Amino acid sequence: ISCIPYALNRAAQLITETAGGQLSKGMIDVYPKKVKPQTVQLRADRVNAVLGTSLSQQMIRNILQSLDIRLASKKSGVWLCTIPMYRVDIKREIDLVEEVARVYGYNNIENRTRATIDFSHPISASTPSRVLKEALTGFGFHEVITDSLLEANKATLFNAAAVSILNPNSIEMDSLRTSLVPGLLAVVARNQSFGNNDLRLFEVGHVFWVDSSNAVKEVENFAEEERVCLLMSGLSTPRHWNEAPRSIDFYDLKGQVMDLLAKFALDKTTFISYSTHETLAENQVVVEVDGLYAGYFGSVKNTVLKMFGIEQSVFVAELSLSALKQKRVVKYEQLPRFPKVKRDVAFILDAATTVGEVTDCMRSFSAGLLSSVEVFDVYHGDKVLPGKKSLAFSLELMSREKTLSEEEIEKEMGKIVAGVEQAFDASLRSVKV
Questions:
Q1: How far is the C-alpha of 102 from the C-alpha of 100, rounded, in Å?
Q2: Which residues contact 106 (CB under 8 A, 6 or more apart)?
């Protein structure tokens, strides 16, 4: 405070010497409301609890008094501290604790690590979202968080019934997202501009849209859903001198979706090919769980990629978290005691017949000995007629009660082959042991 008159006199002198004029006598002090020093309460126990020290009350008092802070005792170990006017940075008790630590010396404060275990409360179970994130991180994906606000032309890519903001901050953020895909595509575009092309990303978030149906909604006619979106682009594995690089394809993403569903014990799932021009993805496959729609996966359309300035293929999957949160009773079985028998079988069928249809047919005609079915070859070429294709499957037969005899194996294979031939007007191409 005492330096203010000196500064005013010096300023008046410089003005007179530089600009001329006559200097008036005296000083006018406009001080309508006197400012009182601020007071802050401090507890000695709190100082030691925060710093992990054992400082005495007298030592704490000496440190604060050396900083022109006056202390008045309210009760034992509690002071009412009067803060100097020039220390405008001290307003709370924690600020005084910091001053004590600074003067005492950070190097004098011992590093301590302490952990406690509370057995009186059960450990809360992991939430589905946490299990989901841990699983995807284990699969090699990186989590991203994008903005829920998009410009209208991107917000309506997945669903035309986007929710518009009444008073948006900018045209780029005037609508709520109806899908997680546009936000992830913006992340891909940014990474691509920095030369990072090999990406495995996921996001868990909410999407919104206008719903005019009679479904129960929390706010007017606005619907909200929590989803998870997976995105894959670039090379399937890091470059290596002993392996030719391969770009991620549709089946890489399909495998990740299947693993994710298996993580939640969702065994009653169905993949249905669904072609439409009203979606973000080409070659789209709809995912159903217990006969209900749960999401989709496929490759992002080139027109959408161009909109974001992306120059490489991108594959996405978007699933509803409500489908993954369904409770499942996980049952465990004893490891098989008897050997499995493998047989390879190939059929010539109509080109429009899907692998899933044939697989389901095989299981339906099996007498319970068919433990697994895997397709290992799809052939279109000169050796089959136009409009036809060859599908080859690897079958595993097993009984949990005994070792299968050759007669039982042949009987089971006969039922399966006859069922496929009858259901699809197929012809048997080969059977191999």
A1: 6
A2: none
Question: pTM for the complete prediction?
Answer: 0.66
pLDDT < 50: residue spans in the chain:
1
**How crowded is residue 131: how many other Cβ atoms within 10 Å of its Cβ?**
15
The C-alpha atoms of residue 230 and residue 180 are separated, in whole angstroms, by 9
| Residue 243, pLDDT score | 85
Please state, in angstroms and rounded to a whole number, the distance separating the CA atoms of residues 323 and 292.
8
User: Can you read off the two tokens belonging to residue 207?
Assistant: 């999407």
**Residue 393 and residue 411: Cα distance in Å, rounded?**
18
CA distance 111 to 105: 13
Phi and psi torsions of 317, nearest 5°: -135, 135
Token couple for 112 = 């301590």
Beta bridge partners of 233: 199, 314
- Alpha carbon distances (Å) from 310 to 78, 233, 379: 64, 11, 33
Please report the pLDDT score of residue 144 as a whole number. 95
pLDDT at 190: 95
Point out which residues pair with 373 in neighbouring strands: 395
Whole-angstrom Cα distance, residue 237 to residue 191? Answer: 18
For the chain, how many residues are written? 433
Q: In sequence order, what are the residues at sequence separation of 6 or more whose Cβ sits closer than 8 angstroms to the Cβ of residue 179? A: 157, 158, 159, 207, 227, 229, 280, 318
Alpha-carbon distances of 288 from 29, 250, 269, rounded to whole Å: 80, 18, 6
Q: What is the pLDDT of residue 278?
A: 58
CA–CA gap between residue 281 and residue 315 (Å, rounded): 8
CA distance linking residue 380 with residue 350, whole number of Å: 11
255-313 pLDDT, tens digit per residue, is: 999 999 888 877 778 888 876 655 677 778 889 888 888 899 999 999 999 999 999 99
Residue 362 token pair: 């095989």
Separation of CA 122 from chain center: 27
185 φ, ψ (degrees, to nearest 5): -65, -35
**pLDDT tens digit sequence for 2-23:** 678 889 899 999 999 999 888 8
CA separation for the pair 392, 151 (Å, rounded): 48
Q: How far apart are CA 371 and CA 296, in angstroms?
A: 27
CA gap 317, 254 in Å, rounded? 9
In angstroms and rounded to an integer, the radius of gyration of the C-alpha atoms of the chain is 36
Return the pLDDT at 257.
Answer: 93
